[in-house]
Each structure stands twice: as structure tokens, then as C-alpha cells.
């Protein structure tokens, strides 16, 4: 209180409160003026805008014409602050990805014939060239590209170059002039198609069984991810001795953002027994193979463990290009199975249930979304949409799938005319395709056809041969048996 009394409201010392003839008079309050609020980054005492410029200049002076060494020096002990949220230093993993992105960008610029000599030269034209390369040449997804752009934008701002990379509509318009569609830069929060292994026609436990013959460690990791919805970093960091708890599994080490969570055993006794059994086998493996106590590779860091895991999976053929799946899809698998256990229905993203059911049972669906989000380590219900889809989007997605199939038949040269020449009068999409359900890889589209009067069914063989020629491996044919158009059919208008 003494300190508060010694300083007046106008910033003067004690004399301003007691001295002078006008000391008893009240001064009129100053008029309020519009104050421009500073951003979270501008308020930081350390790590804010321009805070790294002296360090950047020093790095350039120490390692002239060697941008890789300049960048390495910059990040050695930089400890960047987060620009959003509470006041904190970013996590070690984020800082590591931050530095790796910038180092890789320098190398990529060299390959694009845009080499730099100083790290403060990285600017708008460089990021534009990099993004165009990532999207158009490498086909990287929006989430990956956005993460890289945010790191490079923050690097520019730490060096004092605010606005070097535009944001929002200005950013999309700039990239559009370089042939990058804005849809390639917008991350979708709602899943538009199931990313689970089952939806790709791959049985996780069957893959684990095959892996166990040559790579038992990786097979066990796959099972743990399948039964508990773990990320790769979480399963490699998992210490089963510490994590096992009454009723479930405590997940903390390796968790994204350091947010631990409790993953309970399922209510289904059979599944719960399998969850306990795979944890028991994890305990045995750790006891025999890793003194450190976790499921990672003995003697390797987390980064090295992740690289070894992915390399092993690639050599085993468990990749997007070979099997159509990735390890993260096991989290989607867990989410979908948990949703089905709670509601008795597959999630909206799989498109196997009518939208009306989800709308009528909104309370039960919401409860399932919350539970899935919590078990996956998220705290917002809407995050589950990235794994499960959403009811309104499900109906729209189904329609889009149907429209694309119809367009495929109508726009493939020769299909309509040659089918009519063979005597086909009408044709319908039937089965899962007619409902807009996402088909498994290599699953054929069901097409039911009706022939003109007097045309023999023997022509069916010729129609099949025609579609194998024009749409190889895509369609299976069935005749209209009862003379009445199928109830679940969607007609393809032959013209």
C-alpha cells in the first residue's frame, strides 16, 4: 500500500498529491482516445516481433555465404515464444520441426535454382516458389503446407519483417497467380472420406499377424495403436508399467501438446479382454528388450525411433502407395469402432447409415462425439468430425459421390452409345454405389441394366466385355430381373 500512495494517478511523485495551491482541485479526466491494441506477439518481452534480428545479423556475420550454418546458429538456444495462447516457450518438438522446416527450405530453394547466401533473404518470392513446388509438384496436403508456411512466416517476423508473407485472401490471391488453387491451401476440419484401414479394405489385425513373422516389435505397435487410438509418438513413448491403470490406460509421454489422457477399456467384454491381453504382451516385450521401459527402440531417440518405425513399415509394404493406408489411420479406425460401440451405428463419414437416423438420435451421437474426442486426446467435440465426419456433410458427400459416378459413365467416350447399340435401354447404379457409400479399393460399381424388348440376356456378356474395355476393373453388370426399376437404383441416362 505504501508504494501505491507514493505515486499519483497522473504519474507524479508525492509532491503532485500534496503540494501546490491547486492540490485540492480535481483535474478533468483526459479524453479517451482510440487505442490500437497490440497483438499477442507484440506484447511478448522475449521472442516477439523482431526479437531475433540481432541474432540473425550475428549468424550472417559469423558464417558468411553459408545459410545452413547461419540457420543452425540461429536456432541453437533460440527458445522461441509461442505467438498465440498463454505466454510460454514452444515445445521442444515444435522448435525441432521449426528448425527442420527452415533448413529443408534452404536446400529446396537451391534445387529450385533460387539459392540464398543470407537467411534474411528468405522472403515472398521464395515462399511462393516453395508452396507452388509443394502443392503442384509434390502434391502435399493443405495441413502440411500450412504448417510449413506458418513456420517460415514466424521466422520472417522474428527477424523483423512483418507482412513479408501475406495472410488470408491476399495470400490465396497471390498463390492463385502462381497456379495454386485455394482449395489446396485450406485445411478441411471435417473428414470427407474414411481414412480407417477397414475402409481401405485392410484388416489391421491381419496386417499385425503378418508383420509378427518378421517384425514382431512393429506388429505389437500396430496392435496398441489399433486398440487404444494412439499416435505413433505416443506408442513409441508408452511405458506399459507406468501407463497401466485400473480400468484403462494413462497416456502422457509423447502426447501432443503434453496433454495426457485416460483411455478406458471398452464396455464390450471381448474387446476389453483383448486390450488387456495386448498390454500384457507389451509388458513382456519391454521387460525382455528395453531397459528404458518404453515401447521405443532401445538406444534410439524419439526422432530416430519414428524414422526406424516408418522405414520398417515402408519395407513391409504398409504404406499409402502400396496398401492405401498409413499408421495414423489406426486412430481413425479406433474412433470409428468406438463410435459404433456407443451408438450401434457406423460413423457418418463411412456413409453406411441414413442421415435421418443420426438426426433423430442427436443426443446419443453428440455423446459419442464427445467420448471419441476425449479418448483421442482432444477437448473439443467438433474435433471428432475430422475422424467421424458430420451428419450434414455425410448427405452432401454421398450425393457428390453418386454424381461423379454418373458423370464417369456419361463422359467416358463410347460407353452410352455402344451400350445402346448392344440393346441396353436403361441402366441404374445399385448397391453401395447408389447410396453414395465410399467403395473399397478394387470394389466394383454395381450396374443393373434393362434390355430392349426382344434382346436376349446373352448380350450381357458383350456389355461386360465393353465396360472392361472402356472402364477396366471398375464395373460389374447385372440384368434387371423383375421388369421394375430397382428401388435403391439411381438411373444413368444413356444418351
Core attributes:
hpI Integrase, Chain A, 495 residues, four-stranded mixed sheet, Beta Polymerase, domain 2, 3 domains
From the helix content, strand content and strand pairing, which structural class follows?
A: alpha+beta
Order of helices and strands: HHHHHHHHHHHHHEEEHHHHHHHHEEHEE
CATH topology of the largest domain, by name, is hpI Integrase, Chain A
Beta-strand percent range = 5-15%
Number of helices: 22
Largest sheet: 4 strands, mixed
* Computed CA radius of gyration, to the nearest angstrom: 30 Å
Termini separation comes to 89 Å
The CATH architecture of the largest domain can be given as Orthogonal Bundle
Mean pLDDT: 79
Uncertain residue segments: 1-32, 37-46, 82-88
Strand order of the largest sheet: 6-5-4-7
Quick one: how many beta strands? 7
Q: Give the CATH H-level superfamily of the largest domain.
A: Intergrase catalytic core
The CATH top-level class label of the largest domain? Mainly Alpha
Tell me, briefly, the overall form: globular
State the domain count.
3
Q: What is the share of helical residues? A: 40-55%
Could you walk me through the main structural features you see in this protein, from its secondary elements to its overall organization?
The protein is of the alpha+beta class and 495 residues long. The chain folds into 3 domains: 142 residues, no CATH class; 201 residues, hpI Integrase, Chain A, CATH 1.10.443; 96 residues, Beta Polymerase, domain 2 (2-Layer Sandwich). Helix content is 48%, strand content 6%. The chain has 22 helices and 7 strands. The strands form 2 sheets. Strands 6-5-4-7 form a 4-stranded mixed sheet. The protein has a 3-stranded antiparallel sheet with strand order 1-2-3. Helix 5 runs antiparallel to helix 6. The chain is globular, with a radius of gyration of 30 Å. The relative contact order is 0.06. The N terminus is likely disordered.
